[in-house]
Structure formats: structure tokens, C-alpha cells
Specification:
Shape: rod-shaped
Structural class: alpha+beta
Order of helices and strands: HHEHEHEEEHEEHHHHEHH
Distance between the termini: 58 Å
Largest sheet: 4 strands, antiparallel
Oligomer: single chain
């Protein structure tokens, strides 16, 4: 009979009677270590990366125009602005020929250059730098995984006494397990998501856009709310990320809690009481079977001997005692022979091993 059938066929009255008659106690100790890592920053960064990528790939530009008055020999290009300026500043004319040719002494030089050094772009560059520092700090805090480590110790003692029997049980059970929070997303593990963020930030920092702003002055809070930052969708998301970093850079995002509890759970105790009954029932059944088996053998022996011959009870006892002693001697002799054979085998094995070791040296 398997254990399931055994439990299903238990006599409830016997079980209840047994449990009512026992004296038992249980103590359950639990040590729990919880590590909670706030990984919401990963979600936030992942959400904002596409918007930052749009800005970095297509940065805003404007034309810088520089005007310098230089000697005529250093003027590279004569523009309409140069001629207009000369007409307005005749003191810069060196001479005028009879054919009307004008020889200037100095000329306005106009230089135009395209640049990305805008406030909005410097804001994005500072945001990327802050984000990189933020991520490094979070990773240096500790492992980003959240988990719970649980260690339980159960001590159970039970005792049952009556006129004909006594049972006692002492049981200690220890269990340990780790429960880790699954932070995977779209089939990617937490480690893979963090690695992706690292790769993207590395690409941002090595982009032409960021390199062109290397010497620019960083932007600091409070952010100037220009029309571009307030109205352009990519910059709106960038501002949201900036404010998130400032808010969450103040407090640690990882906490560890350790708790210890001790209880006497009656529901668990009832299950252990049932286990006490099953153990005692199994032991009782085993003893009964063994006793019944021995009694059956002796009964058959006596019946066969008595019916097969004419012998008195005293003579029968003498024969039994004699045969029992002889059988005991044979048993001890056989056990001694087995022990000797085992010792001889071990000795032979040691010699062979020693010889093999010597040869290897």
C-alpha cells in the first residue's frame, strides 16, 4: 500500500483518539533577509532613450556670423556686407582711381559658421553626462536584483503514554530557499537590459554631437524653459528624465531588511501530530507482524514435533535448549568467518595498493 492509499484509509477515530492522548509542542523559527532594489530607473531610461536618440541624430543648428575689419590683404571674401560697410565708412578707403576703381585700406570680413552650441543642445549633453553618472552610481550601490532568503527551523516534540505502551518523538527540520524577483521584460533579463543601457550611453557619449559640445559650458538646474524644451516632444521627454534623475539621485534605491520571528502555529502542529501517529502506527504494525511471524513458526514446529513422536515436555525443552545453543554457536562461527574474510580482503587490497603506489613512484 502506498502512502496516499494509507492516509486515505486511516481510521479517523483512531487518529483523533491518538492525538487527543498525546502531549506535543512545536516551535517555528524563521529568519528572513529581504533585498529590495528599485529598478524603476531602468524602465524610465529605456522609455526615454528613443527620444534622446532622435535629438542626438538630428541636433538643432544655427549659423554663427562673425564680423572683423581686417587689412585688405587679409580679406578672403568680398561680400555685399563688405561693400556696404566700406561705402558707409569712407575713412577705410585708401585711394580712388580715375576709372572709378576703389582701393580700400581695410575691409569688413564676414565669417559664417554652422554650430550646435545652443542652450537646448547643451541641455541634452549635460543630461547624457548626468545619466551616465546616475547609472554608474546605481550599479555601484549593489546588485540590482531583488530577492528574499528564508531560513526556517522547526522543532517538534511529542509524547504518548498509556498502560501498555509509550512513544516519544523529537524532530528538527531545517529548510532554506531563495526567492528572486523576475525583472525581465520582453524576453530580456535584468542584466541584459542594463547592458543595453550601458551600450546606448557609450554610443551617445562617443557621438559627433556630444564631441562637438565637449568644450561647452554645462547646464545646471533650474532648466530654462525655452519654447523648444516646453513644446518639442523629444525635449519634453528629456526634461522629464532630467527631473526624474534629480529626484531619485538623492535617496538610495536599494534596501536590505532582516527579520526573525518565532511562532507556534497550531495548523502546522496538527500536521506534525498526524505524522507522530503515522510513525507510531508504522512501528506498531511492524512489531505486530514480526511477533505474529515468530509465533507462527514456533507453533508449527511444536505441533509437528508433538504429533510425530512420543516425547515429554521436559524432554522437548532439553532438545530445544540444546539445539538453540548449537544454532547460536554456528551463527557466531559463521559471523566470525565472514568478518575474517572481510579483514583478509582489506589486508590484500592494502598490499596491492601499496605495491601499485610504489611502482608509480
Amino acid at each position: 500500500m502506498n502512502i496516499v492509499d494509507y492516509i486515505n484509509n486511516l481510521n479517523k477515530e483512531r487518529v483523533e483518539k491518538f492525538i487527543e492522548s498525546i502531549s506535543s509542542d512545536i516551535t517555528i523559527k524563521s529568519d528572513i533577509e529581504k533585498k529590495i532594489s528599485d529598478t524603476s530607473w531602468i524602465d524610465m531610461v529605456e522609455e526615454c532613450i528613443p527620444y534622446l536618440d532622435n535629438i542626438i541624430r538630428n541636433p538643432r543648428r544655427f549659423i554663427v556670423q562673425e564680423e572683423n575689419i581686417v587689412p585688405i590683404e587679409k580679406a578672403k571674401v568680398v561680400t555685399e556686407e563688405s561693400i556696404r560697410h566700406l561705402a558707409q565708412n569712407t575713412n577705410l578707403i585708401q585711394e580712388v582711381h580715375e576709372d572709378g576703381t576703389v582701393i580700400p585700406l581695410k575691409l569688413l570680413n564676414v565669417y559664417r559658421e554652422e554650430t550646435v552650441d545652443l542652450y537646448e543642445n547643451r541641455f541634452i549633453k549635460s543630461l547624457v553626462d548626468n545619466l551616465y553618472t546616475f547609472v554608474q552610481n546605481k550599479l555601484n550601490e549593489s546588485d540590482q536584483k531583488s530577492y528574499a532568503k528564508v531560513h526556517n527551523v522547526v522543532n517538534y516534540q511529542g509524547e504518548k503514554k498509556d498502560k501498555n505502551s509509550a512513544y516519544k518523538i523529537t524532530l528538527t527540520l531545517e529548510s532554506s530557499f531563495d526567492d528572486e524577483v523576475d525583472a525581465s521584460k520582453d524576453g530580456h533579463s535584468l542584466e541584459e537590459r542594463i547592458e543595453h543601457i550601458r551600450d546606448v550611453l557609450a554610443a551617445f557619449r562617443s557621438s559627433t554631437f556630444i564631441k562637438n559640445l565637449k568644450e561647452s559650458s554645462p547646464v545646471r538646474s533650474p532648466i530654462r524653459k525655452t519654447n523648444v524644451i516646453l513644446k518639442e516632444p523629444n525635449f519634453i521627454k528629456a526634461l522629464e528624465l532630467w527631473e526624474y534623475l534629480e529626484k531619485n539621485n538623492i535617496k538610495p534605491m536599494t534596501s536590505i531588511e532582516k527579520t526573525s520571528t518565532e511562532s507556534k502555529d497550531t495548523n502546522i502542529k496538527e500536521k506534525y501530530d498526524l505524522g507522530f501517529f503515522i510513525d507510531s502506527d508504522a512501528l506498531r504494525t511492524s512489531e505486530e507482524v514480526h511477533t505474529e511471524y515468530n509465533e507462527a513458526i514456533i507453533s508449527k514446529l511444536i505441533n509437528d514435533f508433538v504429533y510425530s513422536g512420543n516425547v515429554t515436555e521436559n524432554e522437548f525443552r532439553k532438545i530445544i535448549n540444546k539445539e538453540f545453543k548449537e544454532a547460536s554457536k554456528r551463527k557466531h562461527k559463521e559471523e566470525a568467518n565472514v568478518s575474517k574474510c572481510f579483514d583478509d580482503f582489506v589486508s590484500y587490497f592494502d598490499k596491492v595498493l601499496h605495491k601499485a603506489t610504489t611502482l608509480l613512484k
